[in-house]
Amino acid sequence: MTRIEHTLTIERSVDEVFDYLMDANNDPVWMAHVVEVGRGADKPVEPGLEIDETVKFLGKRLPVTMRVTEHEPPRRSAIELTGSPIPGRGSYELEAVDGGTRLTATLETDAHGFFKLAEPVFARMARRDFAGNFETLKDLLEARNDSRTHGP
Fold it and tell me: For residue 43, which of 65, 113, 118, 132 sits 20 to 30 Å off, Cα-Cα?
């Protein structure tokens, strides 16, 4: 089992960060490996919702299905990867802090077969990519509406 956790503070409100995270159509914008979003992305997020995405991993396009297991707006949401070569679970936890939102993202995977043998390499790659994705998210959200803070 591999567990990856990344925490950062985004200078935006909890509601704004949560709303952006819960719109799967935003995933290809800030998640480097997501290349397409499909079924379920246009539905309201609630437990049981399944969202299909296509990810690029080691040069291959792979289908992934995420099933929402917990949804407590705007504080927490969790998913289970049900249609993926590497099964796993993920969650977002958001907390209001001075200056914005503390976001903690967690991913736990349970590799099998070839992926189990190469798990140390994949875990290192995943940690780097995971952190990079969330830094991209931070940059995107903090850049939105920046003009409102820079008046004449």
Answer: 132
Query: Shortest CA distance to 108 belongs to which of 66, 80, 70, 76?
Result: 80
The sign of the dihedral angle between the CA atoms of 50, 54, 121, 116 is positive
Predicted TM-score (pTM) of this structure: 0.86
Q: What number of residues does the chain have?
A: 152
Give the list of residues 6+ apart from residue 103 with CB closer than 8 angstroms, or none.
7, 8, 9, 10, 17, 21, 92, 93, 94, 134
DSSP state of 148: G
Report if residue 151 sits inside a domain. no
Tens digits of residue pLDDT in 8-66: 999 999 999 999 999 999 999 999 999 999 999 999 999 999 999 999 877 889 899 99
